[in-house]
Amino acid sequence: MKPVRRNGTLPRVTLVPLIDVLFILLFYFMVTSVYLDLDMIPVSKVSDLPPPVAVGQSEAPLMLRLTPVGNVVVQGQTLRPDELTEWLQKDDRAVRPVLVLPSGQAPVQALASVMDELARAGVTRTRLIRIEGHP
Amino acid sequence: MKLRRRARTTRAEPVVALIDVVFFLLVFFMLVARLDATAPFQVTPPVAGSGRDMPGGGVTISVARDGALAVNGRPAGPDWMDRVRYAAAADQVDLIRVNADAGTPLRHVLPLFSALEAAQLAEVVLVVTPEPVR
């Protein structure tokens, strides 16, 4: 059945309600949108195996201690995070597994910076460790 | 010379172009919007250049500077692990995101990592923001 008005003209579709709804949706998405570009650094995987047992000097894990001010102590040397990449690239140290023992007073940014430098140096086996019961 | 005025005609404004533009804007904002839960407190993630793209979904644990916790946007106390387990089981997630403020002392964050790793629920990642290109 074709809807025809009494005077024979076709009914006009009003666009105003459509525009109203569109503007409401647009306003909602504009207000609720978050424009942060977020990335992630893996910390642990379910399938992660425990660190491999050292079989020689080249496979022995390197222990990095993160100090409260964000410096790294490794093999008795204190390095800034930006010096770590160069240090790791010497003598193929980057192929060794790395254990990171952060201080509880260090900020999260310091840990992210160290993880960043480890990734830049080509370290593929990184593990965070913590002394149980020690904050 | 006498100038003749044009006859005034009221022309309807073309609304189709307006609707087109509004639709474009709507689709744009729908695509860029992240409908994830936000934290009930201010969290500024740390900056790192080696982060990977983060997929959507998963459980988000937010950590404030003072150590306050929120799970999927809701404040959580010592029962945070139960909430994470419940959320992970309900949504069958394979990713747990720890969204800690850059200035949060690690003493508030490391126990979370330990507990989550011990629970073996899903992959645990630290949320970062990409650093500007050097």
TrEMBL record, chain A:
Assigned keywords, A-Z: Cell membrane, Membrane, Protein transport, Transmembrane, Transmembrane helix, Transport
Domain of life: Bacteria
GO cellular component, one term: plasma membrane
Residue ranges crossing the lipid bilayer per the database entry: 12-36
Subcellular location: Cell membrane
Coiled coil segments of this chain: none
Membrane topology: Single-pass membrane protein; Single-pass type II membrane protein
Protein name: Biopolymer transport protein ExbD
GO annotation terms (biological process): protein transport
Pfam families in UniProt: ExbD (PF02472)
Protein family (similarity comment): Belongs to the ExbD/TolR family.
Cited PANTHER family: EXBD MEMBRANE COMPONENT OF PMF-DRIVEN MACROMOLECULE IMPORT SYSTEM
Gene Ontology terms for molecular function: transmembrane transporter activity
InterPro entries noted in UniProt: ExbD
Keyword Transmembrane in record: yes
From TrEMBL, chain B:
Pfam (any one): ExbD
Record InterPro entries: ExbD (IPR003400)
Keyword Protein transport applies: yes
Molecular functions (GO terms): transmembrane transporter activity
Organism name: Ruegeria marina
Cell compartments where the protein resides: Cell membrane
Name of the protein in question: Biopolymer transport protein ExbD
An annotated GO BP: protein transport
Protein's membrane topology: Single-pass membrane protein; Single-pass type II membrane protein
Family: Belongs to the ExbD/TolR family.
Keyword list, A-Z: Cell membrane, Membrane, Protein transport, Transmembrane, Transmembrane helix, Transport
Segments crossing the lipid bilayer: 12-33
Single GO cellular component term: plasma membrane
